[in-house]
Specification:
Layout lengths: L2 H26 L3 E2 L2 E2 L2 E2 L3 E2 H46 L11
Antiparallel strand pairs: 1-4, 2-3
């Protein structure tokens, strides 16, 4: 059994435990609550379901934000490096102006 296979097995076990915990949370919290979301009021829902959905939505938003940040920041760093390199190259190749007053 290789290390990669072992990592996959551990990941599957962790995901299954997380799903089981979510189901347990939904089953044990049977209180119905309704949310007032400023302009919209939701119908009464299971409080455990709301907690699990909030967690999943928060994870998705966090993953999307992290992908944006970790994709954009290296590109900005590369752009800054390229601009610095361009500035140094321009300094090296600047020719002095031609003096037209000489006969």
């Amino acid at each position: 059994m290789t290390f990669i296979q072992l990592k996959k097995i551990v990941a599957v076990i962790i995901w299954l435990l997380l799903a089981a915990y979510g189901f347990w949370l939904i089953i044990t919290n049977q209180q119905s609550i309704s949310l007032n979301l400023l302009f919209v009021e939701t119908m009464p829902l299971n409080s455990g379901l709301i907690v699990v959905l909030s967690f999943v939505l928060g994870c998705l938003v966090g993953i999307i934000a992290a992908l944006f940040v970790w994709h954009v920041l290296p590109l900005r760093w590369q752009l800054r490096q390229a601009q610095k390199e361009l500035a140094t190259l321009r300094k090296q190749y600047v020719k002095p102006p031609v003096d037209s007053s000489l006969p």
